[in-house]
Amino acid sequence: MATIPSPERRFSCEVEPDRDSVRVVPVGELDVDTAAAVEEHLREVLDSGFSEVVLDLRRLTFMDSTGLHLIFKADARAERDGTSFVVIPGPRAIQRLFDLTGTRGHLTFGEPGLGNGARRE
Question: How far, rounded to the nearest angstrom, does the alpha carbon of residue 117 sit from its chain's CA centroid?
Fold first, then answer.
């Protein structure tokens, strides 16, 4: 599913299932205009019964506090449901948001590759 918030910029969100895991990959800018698309995909995969949900931030070019909020909402839902929720770190500008808000240590960040190297930072 692709959401196009304005003609000037494009956004998409890819979902890549792999056995018991699924990777959700937002591409472009994750902000107030695009967060609903990512939130919908995360809700769908969490409802589908995957044992691991991976949110891959590597293809983001921008993220605001709306994106940060939806990540923590998905993490809390996954924890409540007993699902592993792993975030693959994004580019430096994206990771800086976690540092500035002091929230990096509250998520499980993993290395690229479903199910490998997950660790809470």
Answer: 17
Signed CA dihedral, 71, 78, 3, 57: sign only? positive
Report yes or no: 27 and 56 within 8 Å, Cβ to Cβ.
Answer: no
* Domain membership flag for residue 121: no
CATH number reported for the structural domain that contains residue 85 in this entry = 3.30.750.24
* Nearest-angstrom CA–CA distance, 113 and 12: 21
| DSSP three-state, residue 58 | coil
**What's the domain range around 84?**
10-110
Q: Tens of pLDDT along 38-54?
A: 999 999 999 999 999 99
pTM, 2 dp: 0.85
Residue 105: count other Cβ atoms within 10 Å of its Cβ: 9
